[in-house]
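User: Predict structure, ligand heme C.
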Amino acid sequence: MLLPAMAAAQGTVQPGDAAAGKVAFKRCASCHQVGPAARGAFGPQLNGIVGRKAGATADYRYSPAMKQSGIVWTEQKLAAFLKSPSEVVPDNQMRFWGIGDERQIANLVAYLRTQR
Ligand code: HEC
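Assistant: Predicted complex:
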Protein backbone atom coordinates (compact mmCIF):
# COMPACT_ATOMS: atom_id res chain seq x y z
CA MET A 1 0.00 0.00 0.00
CA LEU A 2 1.24 3.48 -0.80
CA LEU A 3 1.20 6.19 1.79
CA PRO A 4 -0.68 9.22 0.48
CA ALA A 5 2.45 11.38 0.43
CA MET A 6 4.20 8.77 -1.69
CA ALA A 7 1.20 8.52 -3.97
CA ALA A 8 1.31 12.30 -4.43
CA ALA A 9 5.03 12.17 -5.13
CA GLN A 10 4.43 9.51 -7.76
CA GLY A 11 1.97 11.53 -9.74
CA THR A 12 -1.46 10.38 -8.67
CA VAL A 13 -3.06 13.66 -7.66
CA GLN A 14 -6.79 13.26 -7.74
CA PRO A 15 -8.77 15.74 -9.86
CA GLY A 16 -9.91 18.62 -7.68
CA ASP A 17 -12.78 21.08 -7.55
CA ALA A 18 -11.51 24.62 -8.15
CA ALA A 19 -14.57 26.28 -6.57
CA ALA A 20 -14.05 24.34 -3.36
CA GLY A 21 -10.36 25.14 -3.62
CA LYS A 22 -11.16 28.84 -3.70
CA VAL A 23 -12.92 28.47 -0.35
CA ALA A 24 -10.05 26.40 1.03
CA PHE A 25 -7.58 29.08 -0.09
CA LYS A 26 -8.85 31.21 2.81
CA ARG A 27 -6.35 29.19 4.87
CA CYS A 28 -3.56 30.54 2.71
CA ALA A 29 -4.81 34.08 2.08
CA SER A 30 -3.48 35.52 5.33
CA CYS A 31 -0.02 35.06 3.84
CA HIS A 32 -0.47 34.61 0.07
CA GLN A 33 -2.13 36.72 -2.63
CA VAL A 34 -3.45 35.67 -6.03
CA GLY A 35 -5.17 37.65 -8.78
CA PRO A 36 -4.35 40.69 -10.90
CA ALA A 37 -3.09 42.85 -8.01
CA ALA A 38 -1.18 40.07 -6.23
CA ARG A 39 2.23 40.86 -4.84
CA GLY A 40 4.62 39.42 -2.32
CA ALA A 41 3.39 39.99 1.22
CA PHE A 42 3.98 37.76 4.22
CA GLY A 43 4.42 34.99 1.65
CA PRO A 44 5.12 35.13 -2.10
CA GLN A 45 2.26 35.77 -4.53
CA LEU A 46 0.99 32.55 -6.08
CA ASN A 47 -0.16 33.50 -9.59
CA GLY A 48 1.02 30.88 -12.06
CA ILE A 49 2.45 28.77 -9.28
CA VAL A 50 1.63 25.53 -11.13
CA GLY A 51 4.65 25.13 -13.40
CA ARG A 52 6.65 27.91 -11.71
CA LYS A 53 10.12 27.37 -10.26
CA ALA A 54 10.28 27.50 -6.48
CA GLY A 55 11.59 30.73 -5.05
CA ALA A 56 11.23 32.63 -8.31
CA THR A 57 9.13 35.76 -7.74
CA ALA A 58 11.12 38.99 -7.84
CA ASP A 59 9.36 40.87 -5.04
CA TYR A 60 9.75 38.33 -2.27
CA ARG A 61 12.70 37.35 -0.08
CA TYR A 62 12.68 33.59 0.16
CA SER A 63 14.55 31.44 2.59
CA PRO A 64 17.78 29.94 1.20
CA ALA A 65 16.10 26.54 1.52
CA MET A 66 13.28 27.54 -0.82
CA LYS A 67 15.51 29.39 -3.28
CA GLN A 68 17.94 26.49 -3.53
CA SER A 69 15.40 23.68 -3.54
CA GLY A 70 15.58 23.24 -7.31
CA ILE A 71 11.87 22.41 -7.32
CA VAL A 72 9.47 23.11 -10.16
CA TRP A 73 5.94 23.26 -8.79
CA THR A 74 4.20 20.54 -10.73
CA GLU A 75 0.79 19.60 -9.40
CA GLN A 76 2.37 16.56 -7.76
CA LYS A 77 5.06 18.61 -6.03
CA LEU A 78 2.54 21.18 -4.88
CA ALA A 79 0.27 18.49 -3.46
CA ALA A 80 3.17 16.92 -1.58
CA PHE A 81 4.28 20.32 -0.28
CA LEU A 82 0.80 21.25 0.95
CA LYS A 83 0.56 17.95 2.74
CA SER A 84 3.89 18.34 4.49
CA PRO A 85 5.83 21.54 3.70
CA SER A 86 8.82 20.72 5.86
CA GLU A 87 9.32 17.29 4.30
CA VAL A 88 9.36 18.64 0.74
CA VAL A 89 11.47 21.73 1.52
CA PRO A 90 13.32 21.18 4.82
CA ASP A 91 14.05 24.44 6.66
CA ASN A 92 11.65 26.48 4.59
CA GLN A 93 10.02 29.53 6.20
CA MET A 94 6.37 28.75 5.60
CA ARG A 95 4.78 28.49 9.04
CA PHE A 96 2.10 26.04 8.10
CA TRP A 97 1.60 22.50 9.35
CA GLY A 98 0.25 21.01 6.17
CA ILE A 99 -3.15 19.66 5.23
CA GLY A 100 -4.22 16.13 6.06
CA ASP A 101 -7.24 15.98 3.78
CA GLU A 102 -6.26 14.79 0.28
CA ARG A 103 -9.47 16.09 -1.21
CA GLN A 104 -8.82 19.59 0.09
CA ILE A 105 -5.29 19.47 -1.31
CA ALA A 106 -6.62 18.40 -4.72
CA ASN A 107 -9.16 21.23 -4.62
CA LEU A 108 -6.49 23.78 -3.75
CA VAL A 109 -4.24 22.62 -6.57
CA ALA A 110 -7.18 22.82 -8.99
CA TYR A 111 -7.91 26.37 -7.82
CA LEU A 112 -4.26 27.47 -8.06
CA ARG A 113 -4.12 26.10 -11.61
CA THR A 114 -6.81 28.67 -12.54
CA GLN A 115 -4.77 31.59 -11.09
CA ARG A 116 -2.43 32.70 -13.85
C1 HEC B 1 1.57 31.73 7.95
C2 HEC B 1 1.76 32.17 6.59
C3 HEC B 1 1.51 31.16 5.48
C4 HEC B 1 0.41 30.38 5.26
C5 HEC B 1 -0.86 30.28 6.10
C6 HEC B 1 0.66 29.68 4.03
N1 HEC B 1 1.88 30.01 3.53
FE1 HEC B 1 2.73 29.35 1.78
N2 HEC B 1 4.42 30.36 2.17
C7 HEC B 1 4.60 31.21 3.26
C8 HEC B 1 5.95 31.70 3.23
C9 HEC B 1 6.57 32.66 4.26
C10 HEC B 1 6.58 31.14 2.09
C11 HEC B 1 8.04 31.32 1.64
C12 HEC B 1 8.83 30.20 2.30
C13 HEC B 1 10.32 30.28 2.13
O1 HEC B 1 10.86 31.19 1.49
O2 HEC B 1 10.97 29.38 2.69
C14 HEC B 1 5.58 30.31 1.45
C15 HEC B 1 5.79 29.58 0.28
C16 HEC B 1 4.81 28.93 -0.43
C17 HEC B 1 4.97 28.32 -1.72
C18 HEC B 1 6.22 28.35 -2.57
C19 HEC B 1 6.14 29.62 -3.43
C20 HEC B 1 7.26 29.85 -4.42
O3 HEC B 1 7.26 30.93 -5.05
O4 HEC B 1 8.11 28.97 -4.59
C21 HEC B 1 3.76 27.77 -2.06
C22 HEC B 1 3.43 27.03 -3.33
C23 HEC B 1 2.86 28.03 -0.98
N3 HEC B 1 3.52 28.73 0.02
C24 HEC B 1 1.53 27.66 -0.96
C25 HEC B 1 0.67 27.84 0.12
C26 HEC B 1 -0.71 27.41 0.14
C27 HEC B 1 -1.45 26.81 -1.04
C28 HEC B 1 -1.20 27.71 1.39
C29 HEC B 1 -2.58 27.39 1.96
C30 HEC B 1 -2.90 25.99 2.05
C31 HEC B 1 -0.13 28.33 2.13
N4 HEC B 1 0.99 28.39 1.33
C32 HEC B 1 -0.23 28.80 3.44
C33 HEC B 1 3.68 31.53 4.22
C34 HEC B 1 2.44 30.92 4.37
